[in-house]
Amino acid sequence: MARALEPLIVGRVIGEVIDTFSLSVKMTVIYNSNKPVCNGHEFFPSAVTTKPKVEVDGGDMRTFYTLVMTDPDVPGPSDPYLREHLHWLVTDIPGTTDVSFGREVVSYENPRPNIGIHRFVFVLFKQKRRQAVAAPPSRDHFSTRNFATSNDLGLPVAAVYFNAQRETAARRR
């Protein structure tokens, strides 16, 4: 399992966004292009305008999860002083289903990086009980770590990220 975390360490997701954790749940993130999100792969912003299908395979229907999608590179990776920006938050996702069965607390906001290559991180947490997660006050200056602590979520159980950068008109063709 340690090898599965290597891309998250190399991509500085572990360290800058979350702490080291044990990967214990299978999470699959698929955008409408039927292309699964793999750590470090690049997606064009035009390919991620609608929320992805996120499948959770962990436990049973009595186990609930929270999904956080965040951009730690706002406004740009060389000076991310607005770190992090919350793009999506879904809670009460039953194990062995997908996010459509959960409660969308913060609606999906499609990635629109302006400067440099941004990382868009999906982090899955196991909830201790249902309807126990509170909405953050703002999308800006979000902290995945602080959010997990204040909602008693503990360490993540799964995470994956992709890269995206601003598209020029020529790249969209």
UniProtKB/TrEMBL annotation:
<dbReference type="InterPro" id="IPR001858">
    <property type="entry name" value="Phosphatidylethanolamine-bd_CS"/>
</dbReference>
<dbReference type="InterPro" id="IPR008914">
    <property type="entry name" value="PEBP"/>
</dbReference>
<dbReference type="InterPro" id="IPR035810">
    <property type="entry name" value="PEBP_euk"/>
</dbReference>
<dbReference type="InterPro" id="IPR036610">
    <property type="entry name" value="PEBP-like_sf"/>
</dbReference>
<dbReference type="Pfam" id="PF01161">
    <property type="entry name" value="PBP"/>
</dbReference>
<comment type="similarity">
    <text>Belongs to the phosphatidylethanolamine-binding protein family.</text>
</comment>
<protein>
    <submittedName>
        <fullName>Protein SELF-PRUNING</fullName>
    </submittedName>
</protein>
